[in-house]
Amino acid sequence: MSERPCGRSPGAVVLGVLLMLSWSGSGSALGQVNPDDPSEETPSNPAQEIPAAESEPEGASPSEKEPERRIFKRIGPQPMTPEQREEAERLRKVAAKYGTDPTAIVGRIQLTSQYLDLTQGANATVSTVRVDLPFRKDFLLRMEMPFLRTSDPNNLGMSSHRGASDLSVTAGWRAYNTPEYALLVGAVSTFPTAAQDTLGLGKYTVGPAIATARFLPRLESFLIGLLAYQTSVGGDPSRKDVSLFNVTAQVNSFWGQRWWTIVQSVWQVDFERSAKSSMVMEFEGGRNLIGRFGAYIRPGVGIYGRDVPGAYIWNIEVGVRYMFPSF
Fold it and tell me: How far is the C-alpha of 293 from the C-alpha of 305, rounded, in Å?
């Protein structure tokens, strides 16, 4: 399958839109004055009430600047009414309870199983145990232990492998939190705990991770972005080095009293393989079962780069989780 140029891939467009929306969301939370909030007062100095004329570069006509202003008016910081902020706060609590907000500091015990249909007739099954431990309301420690089974009919020596894969540990800090916008930063590491060489990377890896969640008043949903980068820092010298960049953009919506949906795209770039990229699209439907228990199903399809490690032709994942509050 022919690869699209990395500079014009759909993933690059997703990344650009995600970064603009996340930045504009933080600007709204940090610096936007709400005209409906009585606690916000306008300047009393008449000199401050009259904005200074903006300097424009020579040769720039008003017709050239008008389209740019309309664009930033739409994606820039937007004022929110008290009712919208109240609804955002309510949905943030719902998302934390259901386990769909990556910026929420909540505990989790989760079991998932995923089937992946790969290229050249191969397939894999990944079963993962995940535990999130929150503390002090703004810190989170996450551990994920996957168990992998692979089947490759083209490998005549041993067509099937199974066993434990690499342990992943993430430490996060919620650096900013309002009902309409939240930001979590952290670091993710993996350890070469795989039972066999074919089941893991064979390397120690480390890298930054960022999660953002912005409330969308018109949709009563959240726009969520996840960025992560991993690079190898040691391990088996005979194994290939690791340099992976991953971006996830998703819209998280809620339906009725117990249901939620997530539509997401995942874009990955492997810099150790000539910066080859891949993209998959996934849809998740979930339901709160009882109390803090929930279950979901998530099918997905590969858009391009299906032969790149970490991508697939199609997959389906099911999971159950139990959520508990911060200590």
Answer: 36
CATH value at residue 318: 2.40.160.40
Average of per-residue pLDDT values in the chain: 82
Domain count, the chain: 1
Report how far residue 299's alpha carbon sits from residue 139's, in angstroms, rounded to the nearest whole number. 31
Strand partners, 115: 125, 316
What is the value of pTM for the model shown? 0.76
What string of DSSP letters covers 95-122? Answer: HHHHT--TT---EEEEEEEEEEE-GGG-
Q: Which of 31-35, 48-52, 66-70, 198-202 has the highest mean pLDDT?
A: 198-202
Q: 69-80 burial, b for 16+ CB within 10 Å, e for fewer? A: eeeeeeeebbeb
Q: Is residue 53 part of a domain?
A: no
Q: What is the dihedral of CA 96, 97, 100, 101, to 10 degrees?
A: 0
- Rounded CA gap, 166 and 207, in Å? 15
Could you read off the pLDDT of 279-324 as tens digits, one per residue?
Answer: 999 999 999 999 899 999 999 999 999 988 889 999 999 999 999 9
| Rg of the chain in Å (alpha carbons) | 23
**Is residue 25 situated within a structural domain?**
no
pLDDT digits (tens, 9 = 90+) for 127-175: 999 999 999 889 999 999 999 999 988 776 667 889 999 999 999 999 9
Structural domain that includes position 254: 86-324
Report yes or no on 11 lying in a domain. no
Residue 76 lies in a domain: no
Nearest residue to 82 (alpha-carbon basis) of 212, 213, 217? 217
Alpha-carbon distance of 213 to 222, in angstroms, equals: 6
Q: 205-227, pLDDT tens digit by residue?
A: 999 999 999 999 989 999 999 99
Q: Which two tokens stand for residue 316?
A: 């389906």
